[in-house]
């Protein structure tokens, strides 16, 4: 079977990730491989800390620089972006920002949401909100299901851009239009898409968006970013706050409580500076390579992976229609956690979730990586366990 022809720069890109010289890395849906540039960025922070002892002005510049890179990635302004230690922290900041005592107090989530999203909103039920769950049917969500759920009581419609388990991708702009017609805000979890799928806040008319950095944005744990549309910010008053969420964090006046006028109001405590260094450089790489160049290659890898999976007799739970598929290609296996462990012994880094092992493509992945992963999978599960 003909293999897709990699972009001409791919070997140069691969050289930036040392682990690719000794292993296949297809776990980008959980953690990206370490790049030379990200490692140098982290080392520059450690060197500065060792030499200067304390250099908060410089470190805060790096935090702001990371916000700028995120804003560039999604077509936003840095004043609409806040940094958090995790996507969960960012979602909590949003959930604590609204008054649920009025008629419009319904939150919509989906069965495709990562559990943390649903858990956070369930923890807020005591504040007076109501929750409705959009079902997943055969691994996908029919857009018409949103029309049935969104009504005049809906405050926020929360959706994942890409389903973490099988890579199903939603039409954000379409769902945003549905939500806005009925007065609902749209809150997008882009964690499993950003860096591989184009996102433009203005064109898609997204109100709120969250993404962490350790997956396709090439960072490390401890960094996540929250976008909130500028005109919404003044009306949102998070109880999940801290001194960095104040207009003047360094006033040190406990009698004066004043939220920051921009998205800084969603900041909480001292940012994780080292993670910001890594996040800034990881997103800079993505912005330099360019998502418009990354997406077509990932689509080619998806087509190839699905053909090879089916040719070898495995079963995928991912959409065959590439227009509805993100960078994840999932394979049903008897024991996903055991399979992940066995693959790693063979030099293949993949990620288990539920009943599947996930192969998550990125711009540095080549078809031979997929071949090696599937060869190893055949050794592990055997022909009797394929279907």
Please explain how this structure is put together.
This protein is an alpha/beta fold and 387 residues long. It folds into two domains: 10-35 and 290-382, Aspartate Aminotransferase, domain 1 (Alpha-Beta Complex), CATH 3.90.1150.10; 39-287, Type I PLP-dependent aspartate aminotransferase-like (Major domain) (Aspartate Aminotransferase, domain 2), CATH 3.40.640.10. It is built from twelve helices and twelve strands. It has helices at residues 10-14, 36-52, 56-74, 87-95, 115-123, 144-149, 172-181, 201-204, 273-289, 291-311, 336-345, 367-381, and strands spanning 24-25, 81-84, 106-110, 130-134, 154-160, 185-189, 208-212, 224-228, 328-332, 348-349, 351-353, 356-360. It has a seven-stranded mixed sheet, with helices on both faces. Strand 3 (106-110), helix 5 and strand 4 (130-134) form a beta-alpha-beta unit. Helix 2 packs antiparallel against helix 9. The radius of gyration is 21 Å and the shape is globular. It starts with 9 loop residues before the first helix and ends in a 6-residue tail after the last helix. The mean pLDDT is 96.
Main beta sheet: strand number and arrangement?
A: 7 strands, mixed
Which spans of ≥5 residues are poorly predicted at pLDDT below 50?
none
In the CATH hierarchy, the architecture of the largest domain is: 3-Layer(aba) Sandwich
Order of helices and strands: HEHHEHEHEHEHEHEEHHEHEEEH
Between the first and last Cα atoms, what is the distance in angstroms? 22 Å
The structural class is alpha/beta
Total domain units:
2
Count of alpha and pi helical runs: 12
């Amino acid at each position: 079977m003909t293999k897709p022809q990699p972009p001409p720069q791919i070997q140069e890109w691969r050289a930036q990730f040392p682990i690719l010289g000794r292993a296949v890395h297809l776990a980008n849906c959980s953690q990206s491989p370490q790049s030379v540039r990200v490692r140098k960025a982290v080392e520059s922070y450690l060197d500065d800390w060792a030499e200067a002892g304390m250099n908060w002005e410089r470190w805060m510049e790096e935090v702001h620089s990371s916000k700028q890179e995120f804003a560039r990635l999604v077509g936003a302004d840095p004043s609409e972006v806040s940094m958090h230690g995790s996507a969960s922290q960012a979602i909590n900041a949003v959930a604590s920002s609204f008054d649920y005592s009025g008629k419009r107090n319904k939150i919509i989530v989906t069965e495709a949401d990562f559990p943390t999203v649903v858990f956070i909103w369930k923890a807020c039920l005591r504040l007076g909100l109501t929750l409705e769950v959009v079902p997943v049917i055969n691994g996908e969500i029919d857009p018409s299901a949103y029309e049935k759920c969104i009504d005049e009581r809906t405050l926020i419609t929360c959706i994942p851009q890409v389903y973490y388990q099988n890579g199903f991708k939603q039409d954000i702009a379409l769902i945003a239009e549905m939500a806005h017609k009925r007065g609902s805000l749209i809150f997008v979890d882009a964690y499993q898409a950003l860096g591989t799928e184009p996102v433009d806040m203005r064109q898609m008319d997204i109100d709120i968006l969250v993404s962490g950095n350790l997956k396709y944005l090439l960072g490390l744990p401890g960094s996540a970013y929250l976008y909130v549309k500028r005109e919404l910010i003044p009306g949102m008053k998070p109880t999940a706050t801290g001194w960095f969420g104040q207009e003047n964090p360094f006033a040190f006046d406990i009698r004066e409580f004043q939220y920051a006028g921009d998205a800084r109001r969603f900041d909480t405590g001292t940012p994780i500076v080292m993670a910001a260094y890594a996040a800034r450089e990881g997103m800079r790489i993505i912005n330099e390579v360019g998502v418009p160049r990354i997406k077509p290659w990932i689509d080619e890898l998806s087509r190839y992976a699905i053909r090879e999976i089916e040719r070898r007799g495995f079963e995928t739970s991912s959409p065959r229609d590439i227009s509805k598929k993100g960078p994840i290609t999932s394979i049903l296996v008897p024991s996903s956690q055991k399979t992940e462990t066995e693959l790693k012994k063979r030099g293949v880094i993949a990620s288990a979730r539920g009943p599947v092992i996930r192969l998550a493509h990125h711009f540095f992945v080549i078809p031979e990586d997929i071949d090696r992963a599937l060869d190893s999978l055949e050794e592990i599960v055997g022909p009797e366990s394929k279907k």
